[in-house]
Amino acid sequence: MSLKYKGREDRPFEYDTSVHLKLSVSEYQNFLRHPARADTLKDSFDWSPADALMTRALYEKPEYADELWSEIPDPPRFYYGEGYISHRSANESISSLLQWESPETNKKLEKKKAIQRTWVYGGTENIQVSQAFQENWVKGGENSIALLSDLRLQARYKKNNVEWESYIIHKLGILNTEDKKSRFNDDLIELNSKYGLSAGKKWFYSGLLNFKTQFFNGYESSDTEKENPVSGFMAPGYLTMALGMDYKEKNFTLMILPFTSKMTIVTDTVKFDQTRYKIPEDKKVDNMGGASIVNSFSRTIAKDFNLRSKMDFFYEYMRDDNQIQAEWELILDMQINVFLSTRIATYLRYYSNESDYVQFRENLSISFNYKF
To answer: pLDDT of 265-311, one tens digit each?
Structure first.
């Protein structure tokens, strides 16, 4: 370190001088433990014959000494990841700490490039509850409670010009009323994987693999005894493989897939009627070829109001029956606090192999959500 003689207030010197202390780590630590023994530093002074008087004064009257800013050593660099963390000099750091007005401390913060991770994982769990209770209600009705779990897990790989995105969705809804047995009113397991190779600034050559089915048996509302299930695990199951282009922005994706193969599968044709899903009586699988469009986006429309949309449309052009499979999910979350929100979810579905009518479902509930 260096010391500069600043003189006394009553007898200031007309010029400055400096001397150097050549300390080892052990000598400096010893001095810190025994500061009263200043003689431990005597041999460490770099004596200059020309400034012997000044040097002697600094040694005997250390209160007249100032440290030279230019001689304060910089802090060590810290190692992190693939290199060292850059840091400011000791002069900049100390000046900023003391809030001195110095041109060197009025610099703008340097923009540091964030460390890009190859894999990114995340997910959300939403538990939605709705309940109704009544007693001696003249107009009629029944007590009920409904519970819906909506679990979504996702993983994303990004390196150079390659992006690979995958997600899993599991929905399970249970409805319990006073006069009817507990039953499942929502049941879905969906696996989706999309691989993209950059074709430009926002376009990707993409391949898509998607699978959908349910876990538990489903029954028509009139089947209160649950004797004749109309759907179940892999009854039906839908497997989609597609190739095309993907346009991506921050919260928006649009996939145009002119080459799409979609299979409808019913593995147990004894328990379930596969013709219900337009699969021939002597087969368990129906294969269709056509084109599809897949779109998803999310948007914050106001503070604590978030809207998410997911649409999937398929049109068969390889056969004469030209089947259509389309679904559109729209979710509006109105945040109450970190964990609670009010959720309005709508689901529109038209599968020509299942029904000639448009299927629609809506749910309004208080939702407990957790992100990880």
So the answer is: 999 999 999 999 999 999 999 999 999 999 999 999 988 899 999 99
On the question of a cis peptide bond just before residue 236, with omega within 30 degrees of 0, the verdict is yes
74 has a pLDDT exceeding 90: no
> What is the C-alpha to C-alpha distance for residues 82 and 78, in angstroms, rounded to an integer?
11
- State pLDDT tens for residues 217-262: 998 877 767 788 999 999 999 999 999 999 999 899 999 999 999 9
Pairwise CA distance, residues 153 & 310, whole Å = 16
Please report the DSSP string for 11-64 in residue order: S--SS--EEEB---HHHHHHHHH-TT-GGGGGGGB---GGGHHHHHHHHH-GGG
- The dihedral built from the CA positions of residue 144, 345, 315 and 169, taken in this order, carries a sign that is negative
DSSP for residue 274: G
- Rounded Cα gap, residues 336 and 369, in angstroms: 11
Complete domains list, the chain, with CATH:
2-105 (no CATH), 123-371 (2.40.160)
Q: Which amino acid is at 325?
A: Q
